[in-house]
Structure to design on (761 residues):
């Protein structure tokens, strides 16, 4: 390849898009490293504290798209206190100072402020795409800046963020000349929406493919919007509050008939079930259906809908669908690849929940299934063994039995054998979440068989340090390990600190690790940031004598090339 | 794992004397399981229910189940709305003559009289006999009755199920001579 001029090599590299592959290319030789560096368009940073913006710009001066992730995954479940970190401001400041022509910014679990959004909107002329997932710290004023200043904005995609809704007029901040929108997702906004501004915006956006509305957009407005946007591919519906409004229902149905490209439906937060019939005409084309917020849609309405969605590839649903409903899915949705079943009763005890039977039915009926997230109240080893036999293609398998430590409800045995069967059969398993009563044995199986596993979530499981050691020693591709409420301690933590250099991060909360153990780890591995999150003011952690016995409540460690971060709040101690 | 095999033997229960069928009871009475931190207006009653289950029921664990706040809020909102509508979670007190304490059941868990009566039979270990439109319940000294909105004690089974659910304020299982007044023949 060295006989070709750089431009040719660069052209070839353009076809290589995966981050991993590009990282590999850059290691081949010096000249490839240099060419790859200058031609890298998309940069992915899985942990914003693993590198600094300055070093990023030094390595990749010409990128156009940046993906940044901040808080650890368990922050989604309130395990990371407010103010921990993940601030995007320094990144945007650094990028603004440089000459990088940023066009796309994708942030996950980061703290974003209105100031950051304003700076972002003013600093990059060609900025096209903003995707914020599980972020917080900003308001609709920040959105107004983006709308006003980003002349070529194509994507404004807000997924499950906590946004302070000032009920301002951010939608009317899109200038009349703005016609480039492709994605507009504001489903997570809680407040009122300027419907007139919205309709006008949609009407002048012929390229709009994805539109996800918040609950403040009622049925009649939706009908009018659909008339303006028959080219829509993904639709998130707002509220259907007014059951009496059958005229709007009919108008909507007529408009939907023309949406022949519609493939994805979501939303339905306040849905009167009978209005679902407006979507009759498009069901047979749907590939993605997210009803996981639609607590009102269940029973026969839901079954009817699913029976008509024969091409579904992705289904997110509440457990009110029941085992019977899952059987309908299994017999109808032969193209199903991803299924998520969320709980309606968070504390167990509801009698409409799904059981192991539903899971088995799905595994038997859907040959293409590769990703599953399943909340349930009971499980058996026999069922899991059957699922493993039926579906050896799982890439992601996440099972959450609502009651911690719950055994096989038929045999009262731990669920080690069931999960063991899953990891043994599913050779491509990359992500696994385990639950229920589990001993060290399940981790022996995971270490032995889950050779491609990259992310593992453990809660209320295991007996001794051996469990964690099996995983650390066996799963060579592990990137993210998160553990809570399990009896793993210093022995496991310190056994081989070099392992953590090959991983993105480790989270351990309510385990048996001690302050002394963490300090020793930090000493042995200066390339790691070892963070102790300690919200308890009474904890006198400085006293040396007690370190060996002082349990650490939350430990989060990650590899980094830039050492201790400077923005840590007082309750975070970086050892 | 032996701990779990023997757990039933060491299980703390407050079932009525002579009650063996905890497992069945748990299945039938599953509607009565409540969240500890919830909307129960009577903490002592719900803690009474809790003791039947093993292991001891959960205090609220932070961050469990692993569901995002946005989802939790949606579900909680729905539950609260339907509770106030009386759609789900229609709890009424149930007393039985001679029993030391009352129970509570969720009427919305049952689809009809036969389910309700079966549940009551299991809960209090008795038999309700057969219902006849004219004579009431025959074949048992126990008679299921309820107090309606007007404060009158009515025989369970006379009115359509939906009407019963909407007018029932509490349930009382009468026994023996007291029950005769309602047309029961022993």
């Amino acid at each position: 390849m060295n006989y070709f001029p750089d431009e040719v090599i660069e052209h070839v590299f353009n076809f290589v898009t995966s981050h991993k592959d590009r990282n590999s290319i850059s290691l081949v030789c010096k000249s490839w490293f240099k060419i790859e560096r200058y031609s890298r368009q998309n940069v992915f940073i899985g942990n914003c504290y693993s590198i600094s913006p300055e070093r990023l710009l030094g390595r990749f001066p010409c990128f156009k798209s940046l993906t940044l992730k901040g808080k650890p995954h368990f922050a989604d479940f309130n395990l990371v206190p407010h103010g921990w970190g993940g601030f995007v401001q320094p990144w945007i400041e650094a990028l603004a100072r440089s000459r990088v022509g940023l066009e796309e910014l994708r942030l996950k679990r980061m703290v974003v402020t209105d100031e950051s959004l304003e700076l972002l909107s003013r600093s990059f002329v060609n900025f096209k795409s903003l995707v914020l997932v599980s972020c917080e710290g900003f308001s609709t004023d920040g959105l107004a800046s983006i709308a006003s200043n980003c002349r070529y904005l194509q994507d404004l995609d807000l997924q499950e963020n906590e946004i302070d809704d000032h009920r301002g007029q951010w939608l009317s901040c899109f200038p009349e000349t703005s016609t480039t929108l492709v994605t507009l997702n504001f489903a997570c906004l809680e407040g009122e929406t300027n419907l007139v501004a919205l309709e006008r915006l949609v009407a002048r956006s012929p390229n709009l493919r994805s539109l996800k509305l918040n609950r403040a957009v009622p049925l009649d407005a939706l009908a009018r919007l659909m008339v303006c946007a028959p080219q829509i591919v993904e639709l998130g519906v707002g509220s259907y509050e007014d059951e009496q409004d059958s005229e709007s229902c009919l108008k909507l149905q007529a408009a939907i008939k023309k949406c022949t490209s519609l493939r994805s439906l979501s939303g339905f937060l306040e849905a009167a079930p009978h209005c679902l019939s407006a979507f009759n005409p498009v069901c047979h084309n749907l590939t993605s259906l997210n009803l996981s917020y639609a607590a009102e849609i269940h029973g026969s309405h839901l079954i009817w809908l699913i029976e008509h969605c024969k091409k579904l590839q992705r289904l997110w649903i509440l457990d009110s669908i029941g085992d019977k409903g899952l059987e309908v899915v299994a017999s109808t949705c032969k193209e199903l690849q991803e299924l998520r079943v969320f709980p309606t009763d968070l504390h167990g005890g509801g009698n409409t929940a799904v059981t192991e039977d539903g899971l088995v039915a799905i595994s038997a009926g859907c040959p293409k299934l590769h990703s599953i997230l399943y909340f349930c109240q009971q499980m058996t080893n026999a069922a899991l063994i059957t699922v493993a036999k039926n579906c050896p293609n799982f890439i992601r398998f996440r099972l959450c039995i609502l009651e911690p430590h719950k055994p096989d409800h038929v045999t009262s045995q731990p669920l080690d054998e069931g999960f063991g069967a899953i990891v043994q059969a599913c050779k491509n398993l990359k992500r696994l979440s385990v639950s229920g009563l589990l001993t060290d044995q399940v981790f022996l199986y995971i270490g032995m068989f889950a050779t491609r596993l990259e992310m593992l979530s453990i809660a209320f499981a295991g007996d001794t340090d051996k469990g964690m050691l099996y995983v650390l020693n066996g799963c060579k591709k592990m990137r993210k390990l998160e553990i809570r409420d399990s009896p793993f301690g210093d022995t496991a933590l310190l056994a081989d600190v070099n392992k953590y250099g090959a991983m993105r991060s480790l989270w351990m909360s309510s385990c048996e690790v001690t302050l002394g153990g963490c300090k020793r780890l930090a000493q042995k591995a200066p390339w790691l940031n070892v963070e102790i999150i300690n919200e308890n003011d009474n904890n006198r952690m400085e006293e040396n004598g007690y370190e060996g016995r002082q349990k650490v409540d939350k430990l989060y460690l990650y590899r980094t090339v830039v050492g201790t971060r400077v923005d840590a709040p007082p309750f975070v101690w970086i050892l | 794992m032996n701990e779990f095999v023997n757990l039933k033997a060491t299980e703390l229960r407050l079932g009525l004397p002579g009650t063996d069928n905890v497992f069945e009871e748990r299945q039938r009475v599953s509607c009565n399981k409540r969240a500890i931190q919830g909307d129960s207006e009577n903490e002592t009653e719900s803690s009474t229910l809790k003791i039947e289950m093993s292991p001891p029921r959960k205090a609220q664990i932070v961050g469990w189940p692993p569901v995002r706040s946005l989802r939790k809020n949606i579900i909680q909102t729905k539950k609260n709305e339907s509770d106030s509508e009386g759609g789900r979670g229609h709890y009424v007190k149930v007393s039985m003559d001679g029993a030391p304490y009352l129970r509570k059941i969720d009427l919305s868990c049952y689809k009809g009289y036969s389910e309700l009566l079966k549940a009551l039979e299991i809960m209090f270990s008795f038999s309700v006999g057969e219902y006849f439109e004219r004579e009431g319940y025959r074949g048992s000294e126990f008679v299921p009755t309820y107090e309606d909105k007007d404060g009158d004690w009515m025989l369970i089974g006379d009115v359509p199920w939906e009407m019963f659910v909407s007018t029932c304020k509490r349930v009382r299982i009468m026994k023996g001579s007291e029950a005769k007044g309602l047309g029961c023949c022993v």
